[in-house]
Amino acid sequence: MKQRYTHLGALLFLLIFALSCNKDAPVTEFYEGENFYYFSVEETSVLESFADQVALVVHYSNKEQSSGSASFSVDSDASTAVLDTDFTIVNTSSDLNFNADNGFSDTIYIQTIDNDEFTGGVLEITIGLENTQNGKAGFVGPANLRSSIKVLIQDDDCDTRNIAGDYVTATSGTSTDPCCPGVATVEGEVTITEISEGEYEIFDWSGGLYGFWYEGFGISPEFIAGGGLVGPLSVLCDDVSGELTEPFNTTTTITGKVDLASGVITYTWINGFDDTATVTLTPK
What we know:
- It is elongated and about 60 Å long.
- It starts with a helix and ends with a strand.
- By secondary structure, it is mainly beta.
- The longest helix has 20 residues, at about 1-20.
- The chain has helices spanning about 1-20, 210-215, 220-230, and strands at about 35-40, 45, 55-60, 70-75, 85-90, 95-100, 105-110, 120-130, 135, 150-155, 165-175, 185-195, 200-205, 230-235, 240-245, 250-260, 265-270, 275-284.
């Protein structure tokens, strides 16, 4: 871990040095490039049974700060979800308008339809921009990024399991830090607490490895007991997932499965340093 902090310090020094060398550089206050329209995100996902409308925001970047307009359509060839069967368009028109009053942004609203038919996992909706006035669709560049958006409808008409409870753990993983070479294997116990339907917290998500590896860098028994290694878990059908910021400030992702019959959970986590482990949880 010390090596990680040293690298961070070096990067901060270089950043401060670079900024100080350019303190007299002119500041660009207005966008001066080609006008373009774009979705705020490239992809989003929603449960089939989601009761609220899904908002897909479109922005207009233009150097004149003038009004603009565009329209949208569903790409039926690229979509596996069927309009008016799996989802509806809430907007009464396909026209979008952009001006200073709405912050040069407009919104497409869709509503998923919970049709109680298991479709095998995920349906996709692709919606694209067209008929753009005084600007192109997508970020300037050959790929036209964000000229369309993909909406993933997660089908939840499937069996699942409440995973709240106490577990014994078997964890095996590797650290990229020089402190901890080789494969480490530890055993212990964790507790999973239900927060809401399908949403949980696990303590400790690392399966005991962070305390084993990094006690000398602040991951003490007191830190762990105080909730320092509590993380989120989501369960959809038999899929287990989670995302959190680990104690050394990198993003950690969790992906795995729960055996619906036995309740055994197996997942893999990986952090921003490429430390990784596989955790097996067996109900007590």
